[in-house]
Prior knowledge:
- 69% of the residues lie in helices and 1% in strands.
- By secondary structure, it is mainly alpha-helical.
- It has two domains: 1-24 and 32-79 and 316-386, no CATH class; 83-112 and 141-314, no CATH class.
- A two-stranded antiparallel sheet has the order 1-2.
Amino acid sequence: METVLVIALQVALIAVLFVGSKRMPAGAWNEGFLSLSETKALQGLFAMFIVFHHCGQRVLYSYLWDGLGFSSGLTIVSLIGYVFVGYFLFCSGYGLCRSFHNKKGYLDRFLRRRPLPLLAIFYACNTIYLLGRLLLGETFDPLRLVRLALGIELANPNSWYVVALPVLYALFYFSARNATDDRQILRRLFAGVGIYVLAGLVVTTLFSYGGYLAFTGTWWYDSAILFPLGYLFGYMGDAIAAWMKRNFGKSVALSLLLCIGAFIPSALLNFYYLPYTASELMRYLYSLLIVLIHSISAVGFVGAMMCLTLKRQIESRVLAFYGSITLELYLMHGFFVQLFFAPFYDKGTGILNIELSPVYIVAVLACGTVAALLFRQLTRRLLSRR
């Protein structure tokens, strides 16, 4: 029954996407399929699914550690967080391209307006999490406390996104600053992201067993390719969309093939761990393989979402609401993921254990939503001050 309820929650969440949405007539297309309202609605949906994803990881690995096998209701969603992040990165790259072309002097003060506020949000979030963990009984040696306070180790492991995204923003800025055209920007972006991934995996290889240190873990890199692809779509979107319309069936089939075809081996790799005695070269190649497979799956997923919105106009107040707090929900829900399911971070014991998975997920989503709204008010006040 517990599994049925968990699956029902996920089905209900997907149903929100279709309630109130408008199916386009035969031969007609949703020309605003990448409009701000459409992409924000999908981002709102994916932000909620990321909550399911992190809850699912806790439940799934608890089942495995206790020898209970897989939690079938949460297994898939616990393994596909990277595709949701990929959509966010795609929209970021696409939005940068459109803004760069449509707003005069867009690069003026760009670093101050885009990457720096995200870093301020990161440190606000990091401080809140660190204080919360201390208040709830965690203890740290002095060196680790300094690492956590400085953000060298993430007090909120999920906050990696607001560290990685400013890096990509800075990469865009330096790619576009003296570029002669979009082709040059794209060459620099793809090269820069390639260096970011390859160099970052060196850091992951060297410090893979060092906890949640910054830039360690394949999740920092496995959807990064969607950022320059988003810019590419902003540059060539009309031509690409026209091809997708002419070959809609092929577009759907190719997208699903890439997404599902790459997901299967990635799911298998997720439960295969290299031994600690494996060489650094083997660990590096293993991480690179995971990133490549995840990247292919994420590209297919984004393609499938574009096919969906080409034929359906999304209108949902629920998704519009969550689309307005995606970053805040992403950052704040993780505390409750830990709080309501033992163990609490590194403390080793639980604080408030909710044993029923559907109740656990709903509680995390509800508390995360309230915390997101409060955090948004806090950061708006902080960022309004020079």
